[in-house]
Amino acid sequence: MTASMPVLLSVAGLSRRFGGVYALRDVDLDVVQGETHAVIGPNGAGKSTLFSLIGGHLKASAGTIAYDGTRIDRAAPHRRARSGIAIVFQGARLFHGLTARENVMVGAHAATGAGALSATLRLPRHSRDERRIRAWSSEALARVGLADWADRPAEALPLGQQRALQVARALCGHPRLLLLDEPASGLRAAERAALAQLIAELRAGGLTMMLVEHDVAFVTRLADRITVLDLGRVIAQGVPQAIRADQRVIDAYLGGESAP
Ligand SMILES: Nc1ncnc2c1ncn2[C@@H]1O[C@H](COP(=O)(O)OP(=O)(O)OP(=O)(O)O)[C@@H](O)[C@H]1O
Ligand SMILES: [Mg+2]
Questions:
Q1: Which atom number of ligand 1 is nearest to the Cα of residue 49?
Q2: Residue 52 alpha carbon, nearest atom of ligand 1
Q3: What pTM value is reported for the model?
Q4: pLDDT of the chain along its 260 residues, tens only?
């Protein structure tokens, strides 16, 4: 861990039960500012549940979440969004029938608290907000390499560009912490490589991220630190090289293959 950088997000003793079953159990995890913190684990390990708890879309059964030194675990999702936490959920969909830019602008409205509908209705009393959000959207689209795609219908974009568009939508509210839940799923090799490049660029720009991904090779290249979940519990935590060599991780997750 970079000793000089502060912890931006601190999760302690976090649990979530569904009925009698723990989806997440007593999870401790610190995300250091400026780092990319990957969360890996088999299907049903609790990765998406963790993100929903951080975003406030699910309530914790126990435990605390502190963001930038302040407890946020009782705050409503929109307050967490406005404080700078942005999430691209697993399998997130774009608004079909809207352009790439309009999709980004709707995302910005969600993050800033302005009515999402005014993005498409362009109500006059919001015109100053609209101009500002339009400028942000241009910036976000350029940041993910989609400046030339701004006026195309979102559904006309290739899948790799659609994922980049979801990232742009999340970036438009100027988050300090970006959570990406399986952003590379279903992408072809070239698209995965482009997405990895984008994530690396965002990291180089100073953005703090959490990244859920099944492909261990993918996260090993991108992550500063990895938390491994299995059946809701943390089974390992550390830098990528240590994780790949960890016998519990190999047994639980890498199917008994030895680390290359
Ligand atoms: N709303 C819910 N109601 C009941 N059980 C749930 C709910 N959401 C998740 N679970 C259960 O919690 C556990 C963790 O699910 P979660 O979606 O967080 O796993 P995951 O690690 O994201 O899996 P995947 O890799 O398939 O996306 C699973 O056993 C799941 O069935
Ligand atoms: Mg999931």
A1: 18
A2: 18
A3: 0.91
A4: 445 789 999 999 999 999 999 999 999 999 999 999 999 999 999 999 999 999 999 999 999 999 999 999 999 999 999 999 999 999 989 999 999 999 999 877 666 655 545 545 555 556 777 788 889 999 999 999 999 999 999 999 999 999 999 999 999 889 999 999 999 999 999 999 999 999 999 999 999 999 999 888 889 999 999 999 999 999 999 999 999 889 888 887 766 544 44
Instruction: Report which protein residue has its CA nearest ligand 1's atom 6.
Output: 18
Distance 42 CA to ligand 1 centre (A): 11
Per-state percent for the chain, helix, strand, coil, to nearest 5 = 40, 25, 35
Show Cβ contacts of residue 247 under 8 Å, excluding neighbours closer than 6 positions.
Answer: none
**Domain 1-84+176-260 = CATH 3.40.50.300:** yes
Distance 153 CA to ligand 1 centre (A): 32
> In 3-state terms, what secondary structure has residue 234?
strand
Please name the residue whose Cα sits nearest to atom 28 of ligand 1: 44
Q: In angstroms, what is the span from residue 202 Cα to ligand 2's centroid?
A: 22
Nearest to 106 by CA among 159, 175, 169: 169
Strands (E), the chain: 7-18, 21-32, 36-40, 62-67, 70-71, 85-88, 177-181, 208-212, 225-230, 233-238
**C-alpha 23 – ligand 1 centre gap (Å):** 6
Domain ranges in the chain with CATH number 3.40.50.300:
1-84+176-260
**For the CA of 50, the nearest atom of ligand 1:** 18
